[in-house]
Design brief:
- The protein is α/β, with parallel strands linked by helices.
- It contains seven helices and eight strands; from the N terminus they run H-E-H-E-H-E-H-E-E-H-E-E-E-H-H.
- The protein has a six-stranded parallel beta sheet, sandwiched between helices. Strands 4-5 form a two-stranded antiparallel sheet.
- Helix 2 packs across helix 7 and helix 3 crosses helix 4.
- About 10% of the residues have low confidence.
């Protein structure tokens, strides 16, 4: 049953990404390549989406680049986002942590906004606090605590590790996801996190609706407003 659910996650990503061309990660107000940005937006796409930020996170990153007063660099997590779910998540965690570490080493003043959709949200959470199985921690955070302090905001959409009842949840549902992380696991980042999860979403609510899992673009303004507040 668990394997079938994982394969369905991949199918959901395929439905969302089919026939679409990922926008290039160069936006009008982006920080110059040879300068340290005030903010680096790092995004992890959903399962089977083409390399890049994906259909949901690309326009959100563009909106942030236009509307934030800070200089912005955008980075897509380079990971498989494929059917081999747990291995793919692990590779995503390693890649995301590497992105943060490289920028922090070169640009001490840069702050980070981490975003993930579906499997990508799982990647972001695991990078911050370590992997969880059945609500129990099974690994260490890939991003060291000192660098975690540089994370200004965390945005999660349709997260399979969604846990009902957390203060940072933005949801009209009351159920936990199919791989629920467990209460309190993201407490260190609680004030910096918003997790968007639609009622009856197949994955973040363990529900029956694929349409709900694909319906997060409507939260772009809410996410942008939250990020602006965190940075300012």
């Amino acid at each position: 049953m668990r394997l079938r659910k994982v394969l369905t996650i991949a199918a959901a990503g395929a439905v969302g990404a089919a026939g679409l061309v990922v926008a290039p990660l160069t936006f009008a107000a982006q920080a110059p390549a040879n300068a340290c940005p005030d903010v680096e937006v790092i995004g992890a796409r959903g399962t089977t989406e083409r390399p890049g930020l994906g259909i949901l996170l690309t326009p959100l990153a563009q909106q942030l680049t236009r509307e934030l007063p800070q200089t912005v660099k955008t980075t897509a997590v380079d990971y498989p986002a494929n059917f081999n779910y747990q291995a793919s998540v692990r590779q995503g965690v390693t890649a995301l942590a590497g992105n943060v570490q490289r920028t922090a080493a070169a640009c001490a003043g840069t702050r980070f906004v981490l975003m993930g959709y579906s499997q990508g949200a799982n990647v972001v959470g695991d990078a911050l606090v370590g992997r969880s199985v059945a609500g129990r921690a099974t690994g260490q955070a890939a991003i060291p605590a000192a660098l975690g302090d540089k994370v200004a905001a965390v945005i999660l959409f349709g997260d399979p590790t969604f846990t009902a009842g957390e203060d940072f949840n933005v949801t009209n549902g009351t159920q936990s996801g199919i791989f629920a992380r467990g209460a309190g696991r993201l407490d260190t980042f609680q004030d910096r996190t918003r997790s968007f999860c639609n009622r009856n979403d197949q994955f973040c609510q363990g529900g029956t609706s694929l349409a709900a899992h694909l319906d997060y673009a409507k939260f772009a303004d809410d996410a942008t407003e939250f990020i602006q507040g965190q940075l300012n």
